[in-house]
Structures are given as C-alpha cells and as structure tokens.
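> tool_call: predict_assembly(chains=two)
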Amino acid sequence: MVRRRFSLAVVAVIAVVLAVLTACNPDKKAAEQVSTDGMVANLNGGSFFGGSDGQRNFNPFSGAPLVWWFTFEPLFVVNSYSCGETPWLGTKYAWSGDKEFTVDIRQGVNWSDGKPFSAADVVYTFNMLKRLPQYDQSGVWSTLASVSAEGANRVVFRLSKPSTETFTRAARVPIVPEHIWSKVKDLAKFTNPGAVGTGPFTVKAFNGEQLLMARNSKYWQADKIKVKQLTFSKPSTGDAEALRLANGEYDWKQDFLVNIEKTFVSKDKQHNKYWFPPGGAIDLYMNLTKAPFNDVGFRKAMSYSIDRKLISTKAISGYAKPASQTGLILPNQKDWLAPQYQDGAVLPFDPVKAKKLFTAAGYKYNSSGQLLGKNGKPMSFSFKVQAGYLDWISASQVIKANLKQVGINLDVRTSDAGEVENDRALGFYDMEFGAPAIGCSMFENYDNPLGSERSAPVGKQAPTNFIRWKDKHTDELLTQLSTERDPAAQKKLVAGLQQIMVEQVPYITLWYGPIWWEYRTAHAVGWPSAQDPYAGPGDWLLIFTRLRSAQG
Amino acid sequence: MAYFLRRLAFFVLTLWAAVTLNFLLPRLQPGDPARSILSRLGQNRSITPEQVKAIRLMLGIPNENLLLQYWHYLGSLAHGNFGLSYSNFPAPVSHLILQKLPWTLVLVGVTQIIAFVVGTVLGAFAAWRRNSRFDSVVSLTSTFIGTLPFFWIALLLLYVFSFVLGWLPNTGGYGGPPIQPGLNTLFLESAIYHSVLPAVAILITAPIGWIMGMRNTMVQTLGEDYIRLAWAKGLRSRRIALRYGARNAILPSVTGFAIALGAILGGQLLIEQIFNYPGLGNLMFQALSDRDYPLIQALFLFNTVCVLLANLLADVLYGVLDPRVRRGGSS
C-alpha cells in the first residue's frame, strides 16, 4: 500500500507541475491577437532560413541571410510560373539597339527609414555587385559594361555584348539603399542588421528562435498589404516538422510530404490545401561520348523504352507529371510549343515500337532476348543515382525494369550525391539523372544542357552540358536566340530547338520535379493555386499583394 | 610521478593525432561545400555555375595544396582562430560555439548528472535487494526501455504532450520575441518551459546504462570475501551496503561518468534534432550536412579535446584512488 501511495504522489506532483507550466505558459505572453480591422493579424511562414544557425543577417547578397524577400524589392518581378514581368521598382523598360536598355524608376517610393528611393540607389546596387563579384549571384556583370543614372528617374544599362538575358538578370536584383550601404567599411562581411528596404514588411524583432516582421505602413502600395505581422522560426527538419504543419502551425510551407492527402489535407479538409506546379524536368542523361549513346537511332529507341507515367505515379507519389520531350515545362510554357508538337510530345511507353527502332538502327537481339551492341556483346550500362534522393532512387528502379523489357540490363548503384554529380560533370558515367536549371529564360533553358560552350572534354568539369552535346545547328540557334528580341522570331528559334530535342534526343526527359507548396486558408486567402495560378510558389511579392483576411 | 608524466605524454600525442585527423577527415569527404550551401538556399535543385562561382569567391574556399592548408590550420589553431563559418557567413565559428555551449551544458549536463545519481542509486538498491520485486521491476523496465529506439521515445513524447495535449512547446529553446536571451525572468521561464520535454526524454533513457552497470558490479562485489567478513563481524546491513558494497562497486561507474561528461559537450544530437534545441549537437548536425568545414573542425576538435581531458582526468583520478594502477607500469 505504501508503495502505491508513493506512485500516486509522483503522478500528482507531475500533474501539478505540468498544469502550472501550461497555465503560465511564458510563450503565450507573445501570442496572437485577433484583428478586427479586416486584416490578418499574423501569419506563420515557418523557417526564417539563414543557414544552420540564424544570425541577424539581412544582407540579401551574402551566403546565408534570414528571410529578406519581404524587405528588398527588384526592378521587375518575374513571375516564376507564367514568366511574365510585373513592373515593381522599375515602371517600364526600353531597349535601344542590341547593347543598351533603360529602366524608368518608380517615383514616390520611400525606404523604410523614410529617405526617398531614387535611381541613384539602383546605380549604387549594380556598381556594388561589380566591385564585389561574390555578391553577383545571377552573373549580371558577365554581360554588363556599365550602369549609370540619366536624371533622377532613369537608369541606363550598357552591355558588353548583345544578350537579351541581361535584362531578366538585372530585373531580379534586389535594390539596397545607398545611404546606408555606402557607409559600410567591409561590405564583404556586412550583415545589414538594420534591414532598411522598400518592401512591404520590416523587421520587428529577432531573437535567434523567432523572427517577427511587421507591415510597413509607409509601403508604396500599402493599400494592397492586408497582413499585419509575419512570424518565422528557426529552421528545422524531419518528422516533427511535418507534424507541426499538419497541426496547423504554419500558414504556408514548401516541403515534400509523404501521402499529403492523408498526412496534411485530411487533418483540416476545409483549410489545408496544396498545389504542386511542375518545375524543371528531371531527365535521363546518357554520356554522348560513348557508344551506343552517340547513335541517334539508339537514343530514339530508348526514348520509347521508359514508362514515364509509372514513374510519376509510383516513384514520385503521384505528385509529378510526365515531361514533354520538347524540353518545355507544360502547361506553364505551352505558348512556346512548336506547331508540330501541340499535343505536348510526351512520349509513351511502347516496348514493341522501341524494339523495332532498335532493330531498325542496326542492333540485334540474341536468342535469350538480350539487346546486343555493335560489338556483339549484350548491352549493360551503369546508372549512378544520388544516395538519399528517395524519389530518384525509386524512379531508377522503374527505369531498370522498363529497360529489361527491351533487353537492356541496367546496373543501378547509389552513392553520395556529391560524388555522383562530380562524376557527371567530369563525364565519368554511362547514365545518370540530370536536372538542368530551368526558368523563364528560353535561351538558358536550352543553352545550359545543350550549348557546346557549356561542355568540356571528358575528365574536365563541364559547367552544365554534362551529356557533352556538340551540334553546330544547336549552337547557331542558341546564338541567335541570345540576341533576338522579337517574340515571334524567338518562338521560331525555340521551335527549332524543340525539334532537335524530339528528333535527335540529346537527352530523355522524364518527369517534372514538382514545386512543393502547401498553404492554409484559415487566416488568409488568395494564395496561388491550381485554380488561380497567378504566381508561382515563392513569388512572395506577388502573393502578399494579393492575400486578404479569411474573415472578410 | 613517472606514471603521471606518461599519461601526459600520451595525452599530447593523442591530441596531435586528433588535430591532424580533424584536419583531414572533412577534406576527404566528397562533395563541394559551395554547392551544398546553394542547394540549401534555393528551393530548386538546380544551380547555375554563376552562383557556384559567387559563393566560392565569398567563402574563399581554398585552392592551395593540402600541406600548405595544414600549416595554416595549425597556425590559426595556435591563435585560437577557427575562422568564419561557411553556412552562417560571416559569423565567426567560435562565436557560434560559445552561443550554443550553455544550452547543451545546462540541458545535457544537468540531466546526465541526475541520470547518473538516480541510475547508480537504483542499480545499487536493485543489487542489494537482488531478486526482490523491486529488482525485477527495475531490471525489466530498464531492459525494455533500453530496447526501444531513443528517437522513437522522444517523438512519442513530443506527439503526446505537444501535439495531442498541447501542454508543452514542440520546438526551440525559448519562445519568440519579445523574449530576448539574457538574465531576465521572461527568458528563463521560457527556457525552462522549453527544456521540459527534451529533459524528460533524456531522463527516461539515460539512467539505464548506469542502472545496469551499477547493479552488475554491485552484485559481484556483494559476493566478495570482505563482504562476508563484514557480515560475520555483525556490521549493520546499511553500513555494509553503502560503505563496503556500493563504494567499491561505484569505481568503474565514476570512470565511465568522467568520460561521458566529456562526450556530453558534443551535445545530444538526436534529442536536439527532434526538439530543434539550440545546442551543440544540432549545430554539429547542420554543419555536417552543410559541409561547413571550419565549423565541423572546430566542433570535432572541441569534442575530442573534452573527451581527452576527461580521459586524462579519469586516468589521474584512478592513479590517485588505486595505488595498484600507479605501480602497474614499473613492477
């Protein structure tokens, strides 16, 4: 009896301690208040970024800044989904000739410390990037010659060589205040603690665990900002993070979730939503310096030997869509489709056709159904996959099974991601996955994987053309595309590149890597979604000028 | 004296080996720090070569040969300069470590001491009352909990007390603004509140080792002749249990504890990961996944030096406590 009473006492003490702790929850003192003015009181955006251990760093050019994209604004916002440009700190731009364009600067914009914003700030920002090449992450100075002000409201960009990409790169650079940055002695180590910007939110408080941002009431389009406060917390990963999201702690998040309908949506059907728009394609790279990959006939047959539908439903949890062989992201970029590929050119899995194509290309099958190389040996290739990329690993298993059906043996091996990518850059591989950077610039989308100046001999690091595609016609089209400013002519050139992709199959496109995007409509509505894809996930300025309270 | 000098020489030699290994190991790891930093920054997997170039320039990632790097590394160590963190550029590494140290020291230090005391007492008592109901409950429970994965227990606690019941916070070491770290009640209250779950998680599992260790040695000790002699002399059982049994049985545990305390400073990686606790373990994990060489090196070094010092201390203590050890070398 004594013992039982003792354990009862322990339970009682623990219960009292917990009750006291819960009652005087010290965190609650900083808790949310309900807003009555039709605005959203607070939104929780999850991670405040800033590297492994967030220090107070609001320098958008430095290695690991905290959330800065509500503080600093670019000249033009480039919509990552539709690729349209929205005038922001710049109001309009005009090209004069191949090597010069001007940007008109918005008037009436103030920095959050009250000082007026002007063309001088823009010029200062660009010239700073020139002085500190480590800050020029978009490589804007690779084609710029000079940036100067013309009066108080116009900036002239002069180029060192014709390149239409320069505008897109320049448009995105976050503009910083000259009156603060020019006084800093060691800009390379500047952490910009004051965070004075032109953006819709200013830094309210930061304590290492949380970052609070407050609505900038003097913002130049303050009437569009209906959120009073943003909360971010220290980045964390793993199972607990998925629980927090399902628990409704975050208003938006960009995470991969296993079985999202069950783990997230079903927890609050009314408010928990997601939209995974297609991002850049994941492709099958073949080392074109080796036989039989250097044979168009072989590659064409290969492109019918892979079940893209099965990959996206089975291996990628059904979140991904099969990719178009044109190299475009569909449906986002469907306006660029060449007339002959209006159906999207997503290749089907057709082992019968593939076998015919292999035979037509001069490859033979032996009695046990193995495809023989030109040397008479059964075909067997190594396929290196990045360890830890679970979706890629399961996709590689589907590909292995598919290729077996057409008589090719695939030796799938996983090893450290860094090593796999290093081998790919050096050209030491048979087959690997590739995910070229794909964005709004059609030139870069095709130049990165296919441009011959992006390649290198085997054994040397290739910048981005890892398959080592070398084709005169491709290079000609790319050179023209880099300087062409007429949309109709651009379309024609891109159509030519699509034709190369489909007819010569330099690499095989597989599926579109989904862009993770979960959001909750409990506090705010107006998030980009499949029904209303006005912006891509991550186009924060576009999104936050649209959000409004869920109550009214 | 010769014994202590030998221990000291051994300490210096291992320290040098540790420092050198510490320099080499991160450099043998495959992968490019610039790329892994960028892939953390961007939500997109693809990185343009311009970005890689810019980041390399910023971090000043060394291109000089390994020997020269080693020389510079030794030089800056002598000056206590660990460089700037790659992943938290431009924060100095020493600043990051000092910031995290108190968290680990308090949370893990306090819980480990409690675990050691509780574990040893329970173990001794279980051995004394061998085969009693108390013994079987303690032994069985600790064996059972010992078989459960540590992180699973932590996640379960988190799930029940934080997500289902909502009693305790589920992340971080303290709450959001207006709380500011420092010596103020608001912060201290919050820090204690946030440490409850991780502390409980540690306290559930940490005593097990001490319980089992103490119980086993104590059972052995109780079979010794001098215990029988004590009984024969008619000493009181409490005196036999504490002065004769436990006092001798605790020796190996004390050595173990000294070493464990050294290792504590490495932080409790799993616990800190799960609760997103701002300690050294979490810092280490992030540094590893970011390939933040300067930070990794400093953390490893710090860890190794702590363990080595604890070892040295344990060696010296042993020499003082047990004359046989001191004479062992020369006879």
